Fold this sequence. Notes:
By secondary structure, the chain is mainly beta.
Amino acid sequence: xxxxxxxxxxxxxxxxxxxxxxxxxxxxxxxxxxxxxxxxxxxxxxxxxxxxxxxxxxxxxxxxxxxxxxxxxxxxxxxxxxxxxxxxxxxxxxxxxxxxxxxxxxxxxxxxxxxxxxxxxxxxxxxxxxxxxxxxxxxxxxxxxxxxxxxxxxxxxxxxxxxxxxxxxxxxxxxxxxxxxxxxxxxxxxxxxxxxxxxxxxxxxxxxxxxxxxxxxxxxxxxxxxxxxxxxxxxxxxxxxxxxxxxxxxxxxxxxxxxxxxxxxxxxxxxxxxxxxxxxxxxxxxxxxxxxxxxxxxxxxxxxxxxxxxxxxxxxxxxxxxxxxxxxxxxxxxxxxxxxxxxxxxxxxxxx
Length: 352
């Protein structure tokens, strides 16, 4: 009986050892597990990438992974002209400003802003290796071909552990620099835009487009409000410094004293410094571009600077009337810029 039990025990031990050996051999022979990379993974929703030259432009990733395993790595490949010839200019480096500190819109001097930025060399075109975001730097201005040139083609290599895939023939066609916005010219043809208006007799007509301020409670007579089309806004570059100036003109092109706009908080109108206010203009020392980042601050919203120029007057029955001129804008090119407000009918500033 004892011999039989020992035999059975030895059989069990032998079986266990054999089973362990089998698993060890199996583990050694099992191939390394690969991540999954879908054949349908691709960049979507953009037929042609059209960054505007003269500014840094970010296309947040529009990559559709289709169930592919993360992490994924992205790299640019085969950058070329539309005709297939090499396009080394896409990787040519030039100087751009890069943030090294956090901008929050609370900086008190121009120096404080500049200490948070540094000059670095960047190519026109990069891809973030971990996300697939495409970055087009300001360095492309004057180097890279723009519309109406047919532009460029490029490929993106996508890879993960054990797999890679080349997404081919993505198209890039940059747009020529636009120094400021809103811009009164077509971004492609640079022909002046047209706008439709209606004459006092109700007959519609078409005329050259001009930028307007958005006006509220601005009267041209005792009981007649001005519509937005009676204000015109012009952007003029007069030098290569770091200033921004506001000027105002009435229907006869006579200067309107900025003091007329007595509700305006000039010290908080823009993120500028060393305010100089005279009876003809208001000027600031500023850092460009305006706004400096896409961060919403008390000076900017939705990647546009926002200004509110206002005044108050007394209407009928001693009613207080607060009038406002609103403008959202961007200036991308460093310089001495002047924003001119020209009224086709002179606003009514006097009390009733």
